[in-house]
Write a structure and sequence with these properties.
The model has no long low-confidence stretch (mean pLDDT 88). The radius of gyration is 12 Å and the shape is globular. It is mainly α and 76 residues long. The chain has one domain. It has 5 helices and no strands.
């Protein structure tokens, strides 16, 4: 049986997005992605799509809300 990766807690990032009026679909469109999967799984904490995480940082999301991977955390 395949084990899922540990889930990160990115609820604060989702709440921040709501307050800013940013939808997952907006991120998907701005990044030119065909499907919302990368955005959704990144926000659920199942994936660390660096393009999605960087998009959120560039738009003002606090790094502490994202539980960034170590290589991105040092750059933020």
């Amino acid at each position: 049986m395949k084990k899922l990766p540990a889930k990160k807690d990115r609820r604060q990032a989702r709440a921040w997005m709501i307050l800013q009026g940013i939808r997952q679909k907006d991120i998907q469109n701005d990044l030119g992605q065909r499907h919302e999967t990368q955005v959704n799984e990144t926000l659920l904490g199942l994936r660390n799509d660096r393009r999605v995480l960087q998009y959120l940082l560039d738009n003002g999301c606090p790094a502490g809300y994202l539980e960034l991977p170590s290589d991105m955390f040092e750059a933020a």
